[in-house]
Give the backbone structure.
Amino acid sequence: MIRECETFMTLKILIAGAGMGGLAAASSLMKAGHDVEVYEQAPELGEVGAGIQMSANAMHALIDLGLREEISRVAVNPGAYVFSAFDTGEEISRFNLAADHEKLHGAPYCQMHRADFHDILARRAQSVKSDVVRLNHAVTGFTEDSDGVTLRFVNGESARGDLLIGADGVKSAVRRQIAGDAPATYTGDCAWRITLPVEDLPADFLPQVMSVFMGPGAHVVCYYLRAGKLLNFVGLVETDDVSEESWTAKFPWENLKADFEGWNDKIQTIIDTVDHDKCYRWSLHYRPPIDNWSTGLTTMLGDSVHATLPYLAQGACMAIEDGAVLTRALDLCDNIPDALQFYQRNRMERTARIVEQSDANRT
């Protein structure tokens, strides 16, 4: 018998993956009264050292979780988008960002360190249920029956629930079982990511704006993190040198320096100042949208189902939206399968459009 999910019924929900999407969904679902367990393959919670941007669409969901004040303590609200020439640094154009964004959309535009944001989401979920996250649980697969779903792990253990959500990233084991592995096509671009303390840079180095430097076959985006204490540098470069698709893959500093030879003094100062052993580069791959996210008692969210290139800064925002919409779908529908179909009908077109627009925006 398929279990019903009427509003008075508390579901036991399993989430595979304790990334930002999984943790945000956990808090949203617990706020709605469900019992949630999050299973994470890593031995400890954490995120990579890079920046992330949250626009109003995601911020509305985060504010609903009571996180506005915590986010404001670590975030930067950029005053403008400023586009400049790669070689001279001369400003080409600008438009207002944070103030106009909040006035238009009713929520702030925030830039944060990924680790800070992940920590905020983890603490929010753990404040409701201290043991909500179970570490060292890499997923191998799942089975469904008339009474629920069983999630299986590499360590031989299993977990039982009414509903499973795959939030386990681009190499998702849950997606593999539902729709097969996501076919990945190299875009021709790689991304350098570095961060450095503002105190290591000259005074008044860059204003608190989104600084975009545009050059032939490359562009750089710089913005501040941790209430202005860190500068985040993202350098997108066209290259045939396909490398590991990993946020933590280090590359020689000399390669970074060579990729931006001839760029302006600001870029040279950043590259010359950064710790030479902390230069990260990963290759960007496109994954096409799919037309089914769910089985009877299992669905997916975030990168596991709609991995998105960074050219619109909407990947994490889409994952946070997913969790909010899924929570609402469970509240509105009479049974789990109907709720999952309602959820994906309301998410597939929007997320597919963001995936395709992000890919188109790289050119």
In short: The two ends are 51 Å apart (CA to CA). Confidence is low (pLDDT under 50) at residues 1-8. DSSP finds eleven helices and 17 strands in the chain. The CA atoms of residues 81 and 95 lie 5 Å apart.
